[in-house]
Amino acid sequence: MTDAAPTPPEETYSYLGPAGTFTEAALKQVAAASGKHWRGVNNVGEALADVTSGRSTAAMIAIENSVDGGVSATQDALATVPGLRILGEYLVPVNFVLVARPGTALADVRVVNAHPVAYAQSRGWLERELPNHGHIPATSNVSAAASLFEGSQADAAVAPPGITDHLDVDVLARDIGDNPNAVTRFVLVSRSRELPEPTGADKTSLIVELPDDEPGALLAMLEQFSTRGVNLSLIQSRPIGDALGRYRFVVDVDGHIADERVADALLGLRRTSPNVIFLGSYPRADEQTVAYHSKYDDGIFIEARDWLRGLLSGEPD
Ligand SMILES: O=C(O)C(=O)Cc1ccccc1
């Protein structure tokens, strides 16, 4: 008699919950997550801890939005939690409604529950229409509304338009976001070492530290990319936190680590930076093919390497 094979743990995906958040909408775009177990969590740290502990296969987290910039909690977590890789990016258009318990009028609203990132994106409307309001931070856009029924001192909440599918709330105002075209970028993060295949429309995410007190160190870092024809789509500084004036750079570059020009730039960074964290190469959400000059084609780098190898091994010219 043979032993039955152990049942593998159910594949789980963590996301900022509860159901109805924009983060859930991003996870719905992931074909591999369909039909799997989804675990709603309270913050980015909890989502990433699920991944590092092996409790979850992957986690969906917000990393950047078009109004308020980079999500610092996410950028800092990716810089400090070891072993994480980004498998893909997903874009979700975001707009917001102001909701309240049934029967509340806009004129009654004194205090508003809102996720800090949603609050930052609705600040113009809130300051104009509710100039004296107070703000209570919430863990997510849906929990902002849910807590109105759980003893919150707030009278209203900033929430996603789909909130009425989940909760019995009155919508006091629609489209309260300061930018009607706001988009949030999410990333799916895992511990997997498997690199997504290059598609020609890829992005590589890195975190780079600079040598201390070296004039021109930032320029030298940027030159690693410019001399290989590699375009940057994001560069943002975040304080390292141990002393004033020490920063790390969150960098997104066009291209895949399997592209020779990107690989060569990474070698240059590794030589010149005290710490380079490779967060992953993955397909761009906008599917835009990466454009670059033909002098940075893979074949040009390969030929140069072969030429050097030939010289070293004494091959005839
Ligand atoms: O996913 C959500 O709904 C969140 O609460 C986080 C968030 C906040 C603002 C814009 C996008 C995501």
Automatic annotation (TrEMBL):
The record marks T184 as: Essential for prephenate dehydratase activity. It catalyses: prephenate + H(+) = 3-phenylpyruvate + CO2 + H2O. One of its GO terms (cellular component) is cytoplasm. Keywords: Amino-acid biosynthesis, Aromatic amino acid biosynthesis, Lyase, Phenylalanine biosynthesis. It is an enzyme of class 4 (lyase). CDD domains: ACT_CM-PDT, PBP2_Aa-PDT_like. Residues 12-191 form the Prephenate dehydratase domain. One of its GO terms (biological process) is L-phenylalanine biosynthetic process. Pfam families: ACT (PF01842), PDT (PF00800). Its EC number is 4.2.1.51. GO terms for molecular function: prephenate dehydratase activity. Residues 206-284 form the ACT domain. Pathway: Amino-acid biosynthesis; L-phenylalanine biosynthesis; phenylpyruvate from prephenate: step 1/1. Transmembrane segments: none annotated. This is Prephenate dehydratase. It comes from Agromyces fucosus.
